[in-house]
Specification:
This protein is mainly α and about 120 residues long. It is about 45% helix and about 0% strand. Helix 3 runs antiparallel to helix 4. The termini are far apart.
Length: about 120
């Protein structure tokens, strides 16, 4: 049985010789390949709303009493107490802690990058 004769390019392609002649493309980045010393400020995700029930009770009382503050003093005081408690909890929350997902906020990343800037030249 005769062995089939293929063109030369088929032999080179099957043996992989065509790959040896090609060189990988040279990469010329437009900017230096280092991290920047700051990141873009992204808006923080809105947390859950607090004191909604107290506010709705206060507004319902106002509506029932024709927006009279003296008749709704108890509900108003409950709402102000809730707001003060929520503000205290928010201030007590340390800014340097991680978010519940484990990521840093953009302000935390910028603070760390200011403390440890990127080395742009060799000493």
């Amino acid at each position: 049985m005769a062995v089939p004769v293929y063109p030369a390019w088929v032999t080179r392609w099957v043996s992989g010789q065509w790959r040896q002649k090609k060189r990988p493309p040279t990469i010329r980045p437009t900017r230096p390949l280092v991290l920047a010393n700051k990141v873009a400020n992204r808006r923080e995700q809105a947390g859950e709303a607090t004191c909604i029930t107290e506010m709705s009770v206060m507004m319902a009382c106002w509506k029932q009493n024709d927006f009279n503050n003296t008749a709704c003093a108890k509900e108003i005081q409950m709402f102000y107490d809730c707001v003060a408690k929520a503000e205290k909890e928010r201030k007590d929350q340390n800014e340097d802690t991680l978010t519940p997902r484990g990521n840093f906020t953009s302000s935390q990343v910028n603070k760390l990058l200011r403390r440890f800037p990127q080395i742009t030249r060799y000493v």
